[in-house]
Amino acid sequence: MAKFKTAIVKYRVLPVATGLMTVGMAFPALASESGPSVTTDVTTVMSVLKSVVSIFTTFPLNLYLVGGLIIMALGIFGRAKKVSH
What we know:
It is built from four helices and no strands. It is mostly helical and 85 residues long. It is flat, with a radius of gyration of 18 Å.
């Protein structure tokens, strides 16, 4: 826990590998189960995600999304540049 707090205080972000590990560890549990309930759950999650993403197809919202992603990427690369020097 101390490593997380140190990373957040020092870099203002969570370590990426930890985030990917958390996401990666969730899928084997779903894949190990079999039956129609898993398929139904995955279908429900996919339909919810599709409806959320469809919000960003309208004109002003898609610009906000792209702008936010660009600002986030520039911030990450800027912090990485400061850390490397």
